[in-house]
Amino acid sequence: MTTMNGDPCLLSATELRGLIAEKRISPVEIVSAVLARAEALQSELNCFITLSGDEAMAQARVAERKMMAGEPLGLLHGIPVTVKDIVNTKGVKTTFGAVPYKDNVPNEDAVAVARLRAEGAILIGKTTTPEFGSKCLTDSPLFGRTRNAWDRCRSSGGSSGGAAVAVASGIAPLAIATDGGGSTRIPAACNGVVGLKQSNGVIPHSQALDAFGNQTYVTPTTRTVADTALMMQAMAGEDACDPWSIGVRVPDFIGTAAPRGDLRGQRILYCLTPPGRPVSAEVAASFKASLDRLAGLGAELEEFSGDGFDIEPIWRAINHTVWRTRFAKLAADHKDELSEAFLKQLALATEVSGVDYQEAMFARTALFRRVQSLLARAHFLAMPTLTRTALPIKQDLFGSIEIDGAHFDSVRPHWFPWTMPFNMTGHPAVSLPSGFGRDGLPIGLQLVGRFRADAELLRVSALFEASSDLLSRWPA
Known about the structure:
This protein has one domain: Amidase signature (AS) domain (Amidase signature (AS) enzymes).
């Protein structure tokens, strides 16, 4: 068998898939390269809780035999994938980033994981997450801090910090992440990768305890839009466990997401920041450059008002009530093993009454209708993913956040005002690499599509990606 020259770790899943189909590279070669890179970078980046090297190599050997025998191959045959450690993996430790769960081994895969495995993907390890994915920074008493792929003095973002860092640093091209308020898009923006939070129901969520009020998503994270489309193709489709997924058809993500044609006839509404929320000068400049790129592709641009989008209190009333219900007993039984930040967030929820929660759910519906009215006169919305580049590695969730020398009292509404709304409304929202700040750190653009128009959102994303050469840049 002829092997290719160069480092398989630097190839996209789409490229690897082509080489595997032509028998020009072996799954054994790919998986051993990826595992070697994971071992080499783990001590510096700390993006894994568990590496499954032996199992991955055994699967790679089976995948190689199938390939050489000319058997029909799945969509992701022989391609390495990582899974965030709050997503269940059968027979592989899943800790939720929490000390009380340090030895927890699920007896079944989450639906999204099962689907990737069914298409031949090979699990190489579980990526880091703060306890239960509860914050926008990736650290935990269980494993310490995960560092940004571009700068070890900066945070990876969160809560899917490990997923984004593993992809950004070339450890594996595909990652399963999750997103409850921005947990996929925040670290994607911090580490310069593609992070999609798909529409509600497009990928079934088999671990949501409240399927009807759910605002969390099991998501793809990749370096390229084509790879995100590849993951979507494998993960999407109805499952009996998730009511919102039933009856949702699976489009041709791979075909639709190809960067064909231009954006003529496509209208994009944009907003830099909700009223009163800060944004750094370099994020504002990058956003303007991104809008110019979209206009250059033929899109019609029009500004919209960010009034009514400052929704962090509503998001928090719903989210923290869910956490309090899920974790009050755990917190009482294991107070000494859980972080101060986690316990503090649970304590905040004790003030939310049943009426407060229901009022937040009414506000959530009103927000959905506001977004629907914007998307009735446009195809997409655009805004910066974050108001500044990655925070310092020692940032405290309850500390102040610094933006262009000014300090603000609260991280969530000042750093990612634009990610939380779309968890609540269910519209697809993607963070795309759009440039770099003066500090050499990535900056992200967020695009939002019409409800369940995920494939169309990926097409615009692919055209935007192709309009720059950011993919040629890797962390040192």
